[in-house]
User: Fold this.
Amino acid sequence: QQKQSDQGQNNNNDQGVANYPTEQKIIEEKTENKVTGEKIIKKYSRGKLLGSGGFAKCYEVIAQDTDPKAIFAAKIIPKSTLTKSRQRVKLISEIKIHKSLHHKNIVQFEHVFEDHDNVYILLELCPYQTLNELIKRRKRITEYETQIYVMQIVNALKYLHQNKIIHRDLKLGNLFLGDNMTLKIGDFGLATKMEYEGEKKKTVCGTPNYIAPEILEGKDGHSYEVDMWSLGVIIYTLLIGKPPFETKDVRTTYKRIKMNNYCFPEQIQISDNAKSIITSILNLNPQKRPTLDELLEHPFMQGTALNPENLPISSLVVPFQKS
Ligand code: ADP
Assistant:
């Protein structure tokens, strides 16, 4: 269940029209009215490619039968990639978990259907891509902007953890920017639901740069604290411009994670509060990491109650300053 890259292949942006399939394909969803037996066909037209992941390709789709026309992101998974029962179980788990979630800082699951060839997952469209593309464009962002994003991530994580769900794959590429630049956590492909108090999960999963040390050690299992570790890696990456444990090969990265071997580069100025929040989260002992509520009490997050909820669209390309 491990992913090779943090970034996925992103075929979107910059290429404009080249992203549009030459044929404007129509996707049909066939259902039957259970009472009358009448056949119903809903049509969606497939628009531009938003990106591609492990198995799925994600396209913009427009529902043809709604007024005004509803627009979604459709994750299209070819059934030919679901030959192993493990892959089917994983997809069913992703759908079950994601379907149950309703929160403004989580990509909304809209609908799922299938035809002969594919499974289609319709999601809320996030038009401003992810924090991964943002950091590629901006290199790094300000502490003020980071606070605003962290606040939204913490809101989503509180909701997830209250609902006994661990995301297990938090990274810049899974933090989407929806309407109004609202941050939304997406991709529940590695998420898991805790069945009982004190349960420890044993599956090794995550994305190399963001994976928590207890997952790599494997012996005692892991729990909610792995999401907090990834949030520490995210904060560092937003402020410094590259992940703290990144090296050229995965094995060295894992060694560095297990030894908690990272540093703050001298040439990049960040405040003592910023260093302190990162250091407090990146603790090898999961029990010593702050809880979500404790994180909001950290001096780095002080004053955030007065911040705007979202950042403006201009911050996709230039820093947003505190006025
Ligand atoms: P994976 O799970 O392999 O990372 P996904 O299939 O979830 O990949 O998504 C592939 C790509 O599609 C993402 O990297 C992103 O660029 C794009 N994408 C996914 N979901 C959305 C969405 N809700 N709105 C806009 N783009 C999306």
Summary: The longest strand covers residues 39-52. The pocket of adenosine-5'-diphosphate is lined by residues 8, 10, 12, 50-54, 56, 58, 73, 75, 107, 123-126, 173, 176, 186-187, 189 (CB under 6 Å). The radius of gyration is 20 Å.
